[in-house]
Amino acid sequence: MATRQSIEDLLQQCEDAIRNAHEQYQDHTRQEHDNETEFTEAMQQIETAYNDLAKMALSANGQQREQLHRMRLQLQQVQNNLILHEH
Length: 87
What we know:
Blueprint: H1 4-31, H2 36-57, H3 62-86
Helix pairs in contact: 1-2, 1-3, 2-3
């Protein structure tokens, strides 16, 4: 079973990824394509966090899985926004 601390750490990692993605999205909007590397790294950070959530869910209890699922939905939304903005 996943520990409470491991869940909290992962959720914090996800929140950090979301915050970074929002910052890169705003920078990308202002600077057009000057920050492609940072924008791509933000997308990769979101993807990594999403995959880590999926792995953690395998050893989580019901309540933890629900928390992880809600965070996955947030990550998907941010990821979708980044993809739509990129094109």
